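Try this one yourself first.
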């Protein structure tokens, strides 16, 4: 089947589409390529025992199916020989992010207490105070009318402050983590160059060194934080959490605790500023924030893909999947499946029954999803209310990443003028999405 992509080239088969998706151009804007892949089905064979999943129903079911797991050590040995010598790959592989039950279940239970709905709801006042303080700083920096970088001034410091508070990381150390996390998360990409792997290894090493010191500090002086709880679980019973697992999970909890939310805030702000009528409704009626955030997560997911391996023969999307089949689950494509969401390329905060797969599903559903949602639900109405003249000062610079989709920089101005309201984005007779 032949099809033309958004840039005028021809996609002849799924392998060509995959090559485009992994190119710098395809990573910056993967959505046209997703549609080319969707032309081939909901589950697309792209190589021997290798498949791409674009359908919502198929992605949701596969992520929940116990017959699929994440890459185990045996497969890693085949695909990435020498992975144990890579601090980045080894660190991610020893965390709950890349382990299967029963190890995954054991580690996840130890951290889950910090992310219960009750504890997250109790953080709302903290998030509001942090967001207000950051907006004050943005206003102070922009007094002369100069643009400010939204990513550096708000989208990064808000979620990093919250996750650092949960982990017990001193506020003075927060600026260290952005580069370390940016370097480390390169290892989550479908392809990584030797230079990128070297950067990822450097980030992993520096993060593990940092947490080694923090763990030692918590042993000397325990505190009421998640780091202390995990240290005590290790020290009381090493079978519950090994030393490697302790450090690896602290690294992943920190990085995952702000990377996804940072991208959600940056991606979401661009969408809202491009739909001023919808933004005006949210500014005036912040109770609609939950519905807005779900649609923002669906429309431009901060996490675009994950992967699974079948442990026994299965069949999805009309395709037989032998045991050992490797699947790339394209969350960003599933979130725009027209079979699940009519007119999926249209941002519609009044869209009913929005359940994006941006945080995954099943056993590996993101532990901090509720916290990310809370931060976005607080941040967007507050930004729009306190900065009515907020506007983009340029297109921003996208990170050349596919797995974690977001901006490296996003210049904005925070003038005093009210946001221009048009009829765009507001259906006739609509008053807002269901809270």
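Now uncover the answer:
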């Amino acid at each position: 089947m032949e099809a033309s992509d958004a840039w005028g080239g021809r996609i002849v088969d799924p392998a060509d589409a995959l090559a485009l998706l992994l190119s710098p151009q395809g990573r910056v804007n993967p959505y046209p390529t997703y549609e080319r892949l969707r032309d081939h089905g909901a589950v697309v064979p792209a190589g021997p025992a290798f498949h791409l999943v674009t359908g919502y129903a198929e992605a949701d079911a596969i992520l929940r199916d116990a017959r699929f797991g994440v890459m185990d050590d045996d497969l890693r040995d085949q695909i990435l020989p020498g992975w144990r010598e890579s601090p980045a790959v080894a660190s991610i592989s020893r965390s709950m992010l890349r382990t299967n039950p029963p190890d995954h279940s054991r580690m996840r239970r130890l951290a889950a207490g910090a992310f219960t709905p009750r504890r997250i709801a109790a953080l709302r006042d903290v998030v509001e105070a942090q967001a207000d303080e950051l907006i004050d700083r943005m206003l102070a920096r922009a007094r002369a009318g100069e643009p400010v970088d939204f990513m550096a001034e708000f989208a990064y410091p808000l979620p990093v402050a919250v996750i650092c508070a949960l982990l017990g990381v001193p506020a003075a150390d927060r600026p260290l983590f952005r580069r370390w996390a940016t370097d480390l998360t390169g290892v989550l990409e479908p392809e990584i160059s030797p230079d990128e792997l070297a950067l990822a290894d450097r980030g992993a090493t520096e993060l593990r060194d940092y947490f080694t010191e923090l763990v030692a500090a918590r042993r000397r002086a325990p505190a009421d934080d998640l780091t202390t709880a995990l240290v005590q679980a290790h020290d009381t019973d090493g079978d519950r959490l090994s030393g490697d697992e302790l450090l690896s999970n602290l690294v992943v909890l920190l990085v995952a605790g702000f990377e996804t939310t940072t991208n959600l805030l940056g991606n979401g702000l661009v969408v809202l500023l491009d739909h001023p009528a919808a933004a005006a409704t949210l500014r005036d009626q912040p109770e609609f924030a939950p519905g807005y955030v779900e649609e923002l997560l669906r429309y431009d997911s901060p996490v675009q893909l994950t992967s699974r391996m079948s442990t026994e023969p299965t069949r999805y999307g009309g395709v037989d999947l032998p045991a050992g089949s490797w699947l790339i689950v394209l969350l960003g494509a599933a979130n725009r499946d027209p079979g699940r969401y009519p007119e999926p390329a249209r941002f519609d905060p009044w869209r009913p029954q929005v359940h994006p797969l941006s945080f995954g599903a099943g056993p590996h559903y993101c532990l901090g999803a509720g916290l990310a949602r809370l931060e976005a639900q607080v941040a967007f109405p507050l930004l729009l209310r306190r900065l009515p003249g907020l506007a983009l000062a340029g297109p921003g610079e996208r990170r050349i990443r596919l797995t974690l989709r977001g901006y490296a920089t996003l210049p904005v101005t925070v003038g005093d003028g009210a946001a221009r309201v048009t009829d765009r984005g507001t259906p006739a007779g609509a008053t807002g999405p269901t809270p």
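Discussion: The longest helix spans residues 243-273. Residues 230 and 236 are 10 Å apart (CA to CA).
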